Amino acid sequence: MPPERLGGRGAGLTGLLLSILCADLAWAGKLLVIPADGSHWTGMKMMVEELGKRGNEVVLVMPEVSRSIGPAEHTTTLTYPVPYTKSQLQAIQMRNLDTLVAQDSSNLLKKIYSSYMTLQVMRNYTIVACESMLFNKEVMKILREYDFDAILTDPFEPLGVIVAEYLDLPSIYISGGLPCSVESVSSQCPYPPSYVPRRFTRFTDHMTLWQRIVNFLWTAIEPVACRWRYASIEELASRLLQRKTSMTEMMSHASLWFMRFDFTFEFPRPLMPNTVMIGGLNCEGSKPLPLELETFVNKSGDHGFVVFTLGSMVSQIPEEKAQLFLEAFRQIPQRVLWRYTGPTPANLPQNVKLMKWLPQNDLLGHPKARAFMTHGGTHGLYEGICNGVPMVMMPLFGDQGDNVQRMVTRGVGEVLNIHYTTSEEVVWALNKVINDTSYKEKIQKLSAIHKDRPIEPLDLAVHWTEFVMRHKGAEHLRPAAHNLNWFQYHSLDVIGLLLSVVAIVIAATVKSCTFCFRKCCRRKTQKKKKE
Amino acid sequence: MPPERLGGRGAGLTGLLLSILCADLAWAGKLLVIPADGSHWTGMKMMVEELGKRGNEVVLVMPEVSRSIGPAEHTTTLTYPVPYTKSQLQAIQMRNLDTLVAQDSSNLLKKIYSSYMTLQVMRNYTIVACESMLFNKEVMKILREYDFDAILTDPFEPLGVIVAEYLDLPSIYISGGLPCSVESVSSQCPYPPSYVPRRFTRFTDHMTLWQRIVNFLWTAIEPVACRWRYASIEELASRLLQRKTSMTEMMSHASLWFMRFDFTFEFPRPLMPNTVMIGGLNCEGSKPLPLELETFVNKSGDHGFVVFTLGSMVSQIPEEKAQLFLEAFRQIPQRVLWRYTGPTPANLPQNVKLMKWLPQNDLLGHPKARAFMTHGGTHGLYEGICNGVPMVMMPLFGDQGDNVQRMVTRGVGEVLNIHYTTSEEVVWALNKVINDTSYKEKIQKLSAIHKDRPIEPLDLAVHWTEFVMRHKGAEHLRPAAHNLNWFQYHSLDVIGLLLSVVAIVIAATVKSCTFCFRKCCRRKTQKKKKE
Known about the structure:
2 copies of one chain form a homodimer.
Chain A: E1 4-5, H1 11-24, E2 30-34, H2 39-53, E3 57-63, E4 76-80, H3 86-101, H4 108-134, H5 137-146, E5 150-153, H6 159-167, E6 171-175, H7 182-187, H8 209-241, H9 247-251, E7 256-259, E8 275-277, H10 291-298, E9 305-308, H11 319-330, E10 335-339, E11 352-355, H12 360-364, E12 369-374, H13 378-387, E13 391-393, H14 400-409, E14 413-415, H15 423-435, H16 437-451, H17 457-471, H18 486-489, H19 492-530
Parallel strand pairs in A: 1-4, 2-3, 2-5, 3-4, 5-6, 6-7, 7-8, 9-10, 9-12, 10-11, 12-13, 13-14
């Protein structure tokens, strides 16, 4: 269905007509979908399409301009205007690319400043997009008229969270974890700093004393970092809802959290009842390759081939960096398939094939796939796990550093620093994961565990989304902890009270004893004096 | 298959022969099953039979004398001798009955003493049964020769826990929760006393300050209570394993915990990754009633009928108590089906039918079922939930008081105190749950939520048991918290260290300032003196 522009003439009417049409059909849930941009949408699209396919009325709302969000099958797409253009968005993406890959190793300050500025600019775009929709009265009116049963959103971009509050809809979040552990705070999930490593620390669940100290201090600092990240958006939400609110408060109303992991990836830790793990949702069974690709990879003989991508954010890299990788690939017997959209570099080795787009999961599922070079996004890593292919990982930003650490802990890959790596290092890493059989054995074992599940993550996701629609939420999964403040939650009032009682009893006892003792002494003294 | 006696001639040979036979077949897991007696076995039997039916080699080990454990289909049953008789066990059961139902309300001390003594005697029987098996060398040799893939056991009776340690088998526990929250302690699951009510308190998850104080103190006292409960068995285990051990330590090695609840019953609280909820496993779709029963209940007309049982421990009650219930039933228009094995009381009202055994789930699934009078065992309550029948509950012992509290909180039933209740009260409670439509509406809503699940609990149980067998455990679900002591787990060492650093810095600063200040003062004084 072609996207429909909201906020223009006739949009409200169309919404109403759709509602009336649906009322005549057999009951089906009405779901509002507000995704986050970039790879976040990639992981959500399959689920949204499946929900539509199973008969639900799924309405996807997106800005007119976005990096990756696009219409999905079996859904109605509605767009709303935003005050920026595609080329402006692309410019920021390119700038991001410069920051990520081509960082000048000689200037640390410049690097930090550049990263901060990129984050700041991206945050501003998110806020502008939010404002464009939330304060567009016509858009909000149309959405209200739909009378949705629930909203499915990615809280990485807070728009959907605020819309859920405004429209008073049961909300379902899909997330891989949020900065400052907001998902744990909001869902009242315990996450002890002694063995649950914080984001961006790259620690494992087995920490040294020093790491536990850093992890503990990180936990203490997180709320401050969050305040910076969410300040403008909270002001915006408070203005719309006409009450003081915060992201944590709004997110605490979530009916359900879909988490994009399972414990073949994440370190084991407590979960709340309204958390459903759907890690590996994106890796279906791999399909046969197109003839051209099949021919290319088959010519690799017993050596097999390597798949190389750096994710949806980075499709081309600076010439100098590209040459470094080509130099490495020249030295290995494997063939290489590289997702690369820039101009073809000079002296392209014969064993390397550059492609604008790769059927990544199908390639990894090919029996000749020997290694996967990836930036460490969760989607890619799960495709590696699903297909049992050892990995060479080069994290770029965000959670990728933590993600790859999880894979290294399980002995299924090696990590390189993309900013400082050399051809020799790339060759070493590829040879290691390909020729040292332990990597293959461990990833195959991990793959077997990951796939040995009683129900497929897609079915799980669809079931629980429909559950929330059917029952208008999941109130029975909401812990009473939400009704306590942190002082009560940690029983600090109880401890204080008990200590006070003990103190009073001790004081009273001491006082009484002293009093009795003095009385006795005085009597004795008086007796002696009399004597 | 008829039970085979272990520890006699030929038992080892049979075990070996079975092993050899199975090795020739297609791979199937070999599962050792050691259940707990009483209603615990009832809830486990269906799962064990299903595992056998799906091709696994399931070996059920039980004492020659037990209250309820009996051979199951598709399993091999092996028995071991114990130094007590069935009649001795029955005598203790009868004594238990006296304690539970016929308590003399006028003598509280006698009641407490009697309860304590019953518990003590039952505990002694458990220890004797454990000792009979664990130190029977022939039995243990045969079990070792089986080379099992895993053990499935109910840790309520600790025999299976110790056997798992001794045979070094991946262990799967099935439990509804244990005294002293041992299941939470062992699995490193957080259970904050601020909103997770402790056993036997009968509190809900929304506690007053006073209740939170009691719950907190209860948490502090629990380890002492546990020490009493497990002392002898820990001594026995340490003797067998030839190392000092505790129940918590042994249970911390569990690969998987099946919990006999879901959140339509239990209050929402954190769960660990190796916890799988299988509440409601025992209530399949109800079958049609035998003709005689169908005729009886159909004659009840629009008024419908009441189902009355007090569980597997209590099938007959003192005459005087029975008369009280009959007096009540005489006053209601419903028919009553009562599981009752004693002599038929005089003046049995026409609307009451006494039966030695009731097809409880089938009766509750009948459209004319109006109310369920139950002692509040989890099996019964889940049958009530499944079939959406409001309940009148009379808890007798153990977790039943807590169980019924959960149902009352959800507004699906009323509680009576079986020791002090009157006919009038019984009539009042039955009329209330039958005629006040809110009970029916709420239990039907609860039933709908309970049954709206992506996979049936039986399939879930079978899958995860086979998972543990296939992968020789579930190591990827084991939290790193197991490697920390409680001091580290709560980051107390980190906090101590940080506080020390802060103290040292403050002390050093104060010292330096004082030193500088003194130096300055001295110079000024000397200057003044010179002047």
